[in-house]
Design a protein that fits this description.
- With 240 residues, the protein is an all-alpha fold.
- The chain has one domain.
- It has nine helices and two strands; from the N terminus they run αααααααββαα.
- The chain has a two-stranded antiparallel ribbon.
- The model has no long low-confidence stretch (mean pLDDT 80).
């Protein structure tokens, strides 16, 4: 739902709505009987949300259908965080790799169904044939040596897919580990910090333009994340 909604709304709108994840997760926990955290923790969450909003500020464009899908994707992400945490720390807890293995087969079926629904399956065969046809060997030149040809075992687009799959595996494993130790709200806060970190990397590596809103947003998000960690640690020690 998140991927589909991104094609129907602007990136700014998508990131701002996604930044509400910690607040939505907190509300869902409250509905499940978990007491609300302290006012200091609530204030730190507000700082993180506002910080991401400042960092993502820009042209806001969206359609009614795109806005609905974006909100639904946020709700689904928050429910997923709660369910994941229950599987990892509950009485029938699983390991990170075990949980991922059990989820993968169901995720494949869901992705195939959604791909059929949005019409992507029709283009899979054409894309595969085009990727194989356009595959070219890599040419290397070392110093003054002649150019040599190094054949690839797979076409470059498939190598991109393979590397993307490996990164997705590592992201899920680390995300599950964070959920086990931080809880669903903490994981949502970390996801918001990730959005700001992506902007910072873009500025440093790709020399994106920076303005005062980005500086304020990064500062608020980092300070809010640090305050949240400190408040939650103090609350756990007090409870113990």
């Amino acid at each position: 739902m998140s991927a589909i909604s991104m094609s129907l709304v602007s990136l700014t709108f998508h990131q701002i709505v996604r930044s509400l994840g910690p607040v939505v997760t907190l509300g869902l926990e409250w509905l499940l009987g978990v007491p609300l955290p302290s006012s200091g923790t609530m204030a730190s969450l507000a700082m993180v949300v506002v910080g991401v909003g400042c960092t993502s500020i820009g042209d806001i464009e969206f359609s009614s259908w795109g806005a609905l899908l974006t909100v639904v994707s946020v709700l689904l992400a928050c429910v997923k965080g709660l369910a994941t945490n229950r599987f990892l720390v509950g009485p029938n807890r699983l390991g990170e790799s075990d949980l991922l293995q059990r989820m993968s087969a169901l995720a494949v079926l869901q992705c195939v169904c959604v791909a059929w629904w949005v019409g992507e399956l029709d283009g899979v065969a054409q894309w595969t044939a085009s990727a194989v046809k356009s595959a070219e060997p890599i040419r290397l030149q070392i110093g003054s040596m002649n150019v040599s040809t190094v054949p690839l075992p797979l076409p470059v687009p498939f190598l991109h897919l393979l590397s993307n799959s490996i990164l997705a595996l590592l992201v899920n494993l680390s995300s599950f580990g964070a959920s086990r130790h931080l809880g669903p709200v903490g994981s949502s806060v970390a996801a918001n910090v990730k959005q700001v970190a992506t902007v910072v990397v873009g500025v440093v590596v790709f020399h994106y333009s920076i303005n005062s809103w980005i500086i304020v947003g990064v500062a608020l998000t980092i300070c809010g994340g640090w305050m949240y960690a400190q408040n939650r640690t103090a609350e756990k020690k007090k409870k113990e």
